[in-house]
Design a protein that fits this description.
Number of strands: 0
Family: Belongs to the monovalent cation:proton antiporter 2 (CPA2) transporter (TC 2.A.37) family.
CATH class: Mainly Alpha
Protein name: Kef-type K+ transport system, membrane component
CATH architecture: Up-down Bundle
Helix content: over 70%
Shape: globular
Membrane topology: Multi-pass membrane protein
Number of helices: 16
GO molecular function, one term: antiporter activity
Largest sheet: none
Structural class: mainly alpha
Subcellular location: Membrane
CATH topology: Na+/H+ antiporter like fold
Amino acid sequence: MEGFIIALFVCLVLALISKYLSVPAIPFYILAGIVLGKAGLGIVQSDEISQFFSEIGLLFLLFFMGLGLKLDRMIADPSKLLTAGIIGLIVDMGIGFTAAYLLGFTLLESFIIGTAFYITSTAIVITTLIENRKLMMKEAELIIWLEVFEDIVLIAIIALLSSGNKDLLYFFLKIVLALGVMYAIAHYGKEFLVSILDRDDETPILFTFAAVLTTAALAIVFGVPDSMMVIALGAALATTDPEAFEQHARPFKDVFLVMFFVFFGVTINFTAGTDLFSILILCLLAVVSKFISGMLIGITIYGSAMSGLEIWANTISRGEFSIALAVLYGSAVVGTVIAALVIFTTIVGAFTAKYSTWMRRGLTHHNRRKALMHRPHSSR
């Protein structure tokens, strides 16, 4: 319990520092866990209490992911958006998977690392767009849609990894049945749900908390992955009043998710056969892969390398979902790799997102000077 209190106090200090510096707090939380845990000072241990709170944080993260799947966030031209999403999927996951496999990781480990290469941090991307006042730029809408596309792909990946060696047909039938029940409750009980959310007492918060945890518990009872069912719950409730559910669930997510990041760092062990050179290569390639996919998307969709640069600058950061994959399905080595990946890309991404306008201006000025130098002189 003492370790949990220490971790909570350290996180409070780090949250204040990150807000002051206007940088994402996630890498600081992970680093704090590494310093306090087995890889560092060893004063904080992962126990049943920390694991319980970390699991709650993960559940509410996945619940928010489901709430974020709103059709009104889809935009005008689906063919272009599908093209952009597929480019990112093929390039980022392809580079991540290939690099990991060539560096000696197993097929499953390479697949998880490749997925972590592909999945950016929705929270960080949206927050940086807002804080850097970029929501009005032409690429912002596409960037937000790409986050939704990644969420949909991630749900499919979680379903695939959760099935394991089970009978796939039976497994997906149970998933579809559970989805049907949730959507039926959300559709036919919409008025009742909205009436609960409109109350000004503690009932909406208790209902939201109970709904998430009860869904996770029932999923375990019926042999369905709780991660999938909590995402499905969020997607079903998004058809009622998602803003109200987000408001009531946010305190649980914000507090418990911090503990999830910290105690993920606590469990990191750099002596678990991790090759630091391989980690460095993967971290650098994670930035390069987003550059390649961003440039291809910018040129394909907008016919502009500058748009590609903007997309790259704002989608480098990996975060909460990459870590969730490592916790749910990764080994100790994969966890260490993804922790380093998240720390490195969020730090790099914070600076590229903040200074992308300067980079674009610099490149534009350079191209103009280059064009003037190569312009033929007129003869008199």
